[in-house]
Amino acid sequence: MEKKHPNLIKIGKKIRALRKARGYSQEDFAAAAQLGRSYAGRVERGEQNISMQSLIQIALTLKVEIGELFPPLRELKAPYRKRLV
Questions:
Q1: 44 contacts 15 by C-beta, under 8 angstroms
Q2: What are residue 5's phi and psi, to 5 degrees?
Q3: What pLDDT, on a 0 to 100 scale, did the predictor assign at position 1?
Q4: From CA 16, how far away is CA 69, in angstroms rounded?
Q5: Domains with residue ranges and CATH for the chain
Q6: What is the Cα–Cα distance from 36 to 82, expressed in whole angstroms?
Q7: Which of 20, 24, 51, 66 makes the best surface tag, with the fewest CB within 10 Å?
Q8: How far apart are CA 32 and CA 19, in angstroms?
Q9: Cβ-Cβ contacts under 8 Å for 69 (sequence gap 6 or more)
Q10: So what's the pLDDT on residue 53?
Q11: What are phi and psi of 21, to 5 degrees?
Q12: CA 62, CA 7: separation in Å to the nearest integer?
């Protein structure tokens, strides 16, 4: 399994906090966002590199602007680069 990237962990934490603030259980949120419950859990734990379409669906479900799902840029790290062999 790949190491979790710190950016994905931070985004997942923001999504979890917004979900809880709106009173959604993880299961109810996943259903409302039309995502699998295990997928939503992986996103919240920072284990899933999420697609833009899924981010849009999450933002729509939480009724927030997409930018609210992200921490400030100064808190993010450069993405990992895969090494060519």
A1: yes
A2: -85, 135
A3: 47
A4: 10
A5: 6-68 (1.10.260.40)
A6: 28
A7: 51
A8: 11
A9: 11, 14, 15, 18, 55, 58, 59, 62
A10: 96
A11: -60, -25
A12: 20
* 41-81: pLDDT as tens digits: 999 999 999 999 999 999 999 999 999 999 998 998 887 66
Two tokens, residue 8? 């994905």
Contact 23, 33 (CB under 8 A): no
Identity at 6, one-letter amino acid code: P
What pLDDT is attached to residue 5?
86
Q: What angle in degrees, to the nearest 10, is found between the helix axes of 52-62 and 37-45? A: 100
Cβ atoms of 78 and 49 closer than 8 Å: no
Instruction: Determine the straight-line distance between the first and last CA of the chain, rounded to whole angstroms.
Output: 19
